[in-house]
Amino acid sequence: MTGRAPAVGLRARLLARSARLRDTPPGPGYKWVALSNTTLGVLIATMDASIVIISLPAIFRGIGLDPLAAGNIGYLLWMILGYLLVSAVLVVVLGRLGDMFGRVRIYNLGFLVFACASVALSLDPFRAGAGALWLILWRIVQAFGGSMLTANSAAILTDAFPARQRGMALGINQITALAGQFLGLLAGGLLAAVDWRAVFWVSVPVSVTGTVWSYLSLRETAAGGRGRIDWLGNLTFASGAGILLAGITYGIQPYGGHATGWTSPWVLTGLIGGVFLLLVFACVETRVPEPMFRLSLFKVRAFAAGNLAALLTAIARGGLQFMLIIWLQGIWLPLHGYDFEDTPLWAGIFMLPLTLGFLVAGPVSGYLSDRFGARLFSTMGLVVVAGSFLGLLAVPVNFDYGVFAALLLLNGLGQGMFSAPNTSSIMGSVPAHYRGVASGMRSTFQNSGTALSIGVFFSLMVSGLASSLPKTLGSGLQAHGVPAGTAHQVASLPPVSTLFATFLGNNPIGHLLGDGGTLDHLAAAQRATLTGHTFFPELVSGPFHHGLTIVFGVAAGMALFSALASALRGAHERADDDTREAGSDHTAKNGPARTSSRRA
Question: pTM of the predicted model, to two decimals?
């Protein structure tokens, strides 16, 4: 009893302190606490979305699994895409739960779930396929926690900051999220060189610190409404979006005699079934009293146009990320003397100008958009992005790095100019009591775009390679002593295998010829040539550039269409009172007070 009494007293004191925090209005410095904490949250969540991409070779070596062996490509895809699919599907649900039960409460729980999943990932006790399944399943749990963070962070900031500073705050938060995707590539390369488990351990101290900090410092500043959970809407949306994105994922894998799987009955069933369920979801949302997906928000022009632009830009950005990795790792870095095993790390380093552009332009454009409006900056940013894609089209495969870095910087600056004002415009255009679901909807479009980009741009690249790579590869191998039958067999393999080999930092020729012992029967000089730094890059540079032309041409078109959507967002009217104090929520109590901000 004596031991129990102090514990009961401590619990009572903690509850009393929590009650005092809830009842005490946040001070003028609270908004900066909210900004720093939510920025940390989205940074770690988005870094972990991409950190495994560069570190996959080390991870699979650590668990004793060849990801490119027959039947193992599925493990590879789900390690990358499982996190993205969960993020795309769940953010709206979790944003709606934040509106109902408290945005800070759901956000705090997200940090805790993320921390626990990070520990479990680093302690993988299994090997081979079982070890890969452990990692995939816990990555899904980690994505669940990360979705809680990203779904509610923008809403927490919108509640905490007055309208005159909101663009700056959301700009910092949004650009940090985008930069995290590219910083994850660099961090993955650095940590994988130490130990594959370090890739997951790095998230543990950050997420634990963020968990403790958020529970102690963040507080609810908006009145939540309990409401009812839209179970049918949740079920049809999660099922439809999950099945659709999974179908797109398997569509890039070969099927039968085709380079891609778009003719597979399973893929077609997934695509059709996913679209059907999403149509059912749309019908459900117009009939339930408290829908999870507020379709009525699309009547707000700034909200609809901003989300359309964000979706297309996310697709283009994701395609850029993956194509640059393949370009650098498979061709440019080996041509400049880098070993294939070292290319993942250096690819992350050489892509830093892109991240630098994000970090410079995001906060600046967010601050300026608070004064001059979102439309000008977001639209011009997308025009700059389109121009950088056209510039990349004109660059040779074996480029001068100064020109290449300048184009990456330009792309990052353009995306930074767009993302911060666009997010501020979206979040500022909805009533305060819908900010959680609006933040989730915005994140859904952005995360879905990243997942879609893999299917879209890998398919475009594979289609471009399929027309010319087999003949080029077959003749090149025969010219260096590989028997005609073996050369034909290797050249007939799906181009996606070659892409994944370069993506993982493997020597594609060594991988394709190593298993059959072909290399052992060749002369030493021929073997050295085939597995050297220049044979494969020079061989595929022509077919690869043909594929890049298609990819970057489509990306430029998407950026220009996004710019048009951004320009049509109209003169923006904010849904909340610009003069309110940070942390107050008049609209949740008295209804939205629509006052014109007189901004374009």
Answer: 0.73
Helix H or strand E encompassing 595: strand 595-599
Amino acid identity for residue 262 in this structure: W
Q: What share of the chain is helix, strand, coil (3-state, %, to 5)?
A: 80, 0, 20
Q: Tell me, what DSSP letter sits at residue 225? A: -
Neighbours of 281 (CB within 10 A): 24
Rounded Cα gap, residues 116 and 128, in angstroms: 23
**3-state SS, residue 596:** strand
Q: Are 433 and 294 in contact (CB under 8 A)?
A: no
Which residues lie closer than 8 Å to 494 by C-beta, 6 or more apart? 253, 254, 259, 462
pLDDT tens digits in sequence order for the chain, 600 residues long: 444 455 455 445 544 554 555 555 566 678 888 888 888 888 888 888 778 877 777 788 888 877 666 567 777 777 877 787 787 777 777 777 777 777 788 888 888 888 888 888 888 888 888 888 899 999 989 888 888 888 788 778 877 777 677 767 777 777 777 777 777 877 877 787 788 888 888 888 888 888 888 888 877 766 555 556 677 877 888 788 778 877 877 777 777 666 667 778 888 888 898 889 888 988 887 887 777 677 778 888 888 888 888 888 888 887 787 788 888 887 888 888 888 777 777 887 888 888 888 878 877 777 777 777 778 888 898 999 999 999 998 888 888 899 999 999 999 899 888 887 888 788 777 777 777 677 777 777 877 787 777 777 777 777 767 777 777 778 888 877 778 777 777 777 767 666 666 666 666 677 667 666 677 777 777 777 777 777 878 777 777 787 788 888 888 998 999 888 888 876 654 444 443 333 333 333 433 434 333 333
Residue keyed to tokens 């963040």: 218
**Whole-angstrom Cα distance, residue 591 to residue 586?**
7
573 DSSP β-pair partners: 596
Cβ atoms < 10 Å from Cβ of 29: 8
How far, in Å, are 21, 46, 502, 527 from residue 324 at the CA level? 48, 19, 11, 28
H helix runs in 435-468, sequence order: 435-466
Directed axis angle between helix 435-466 and helix 401-428, to 10°? 150
Query: Are the C-beta atoms of 382 and 313 separated by less than 8 Å?
Result: yes
Residue 584 three-state SS: coil
SS3 state of residue 324: helix
Alpha-helical segments (H) within 568-600 = 586-590
Give which of 552, 157, 161 is closest to 390, Cα–Cα.
552
Kindly list the distances between the CA atom of residue 6 and the CA atoms of 2, 16, 472, 540, 573, in Å, as whole numbers in the listed order: 7, 15, 77, 71, 55
> Distance between CA 253 and CA 232 in Å, rounded?
32
Which amino acid, 296? S
Rg, Å, the chain Cα set? 25
Q: Quickly list DSSP for 12-42.
A: HHHHHHHHHHHHSPP-TTHHHHHHHHHHHHH
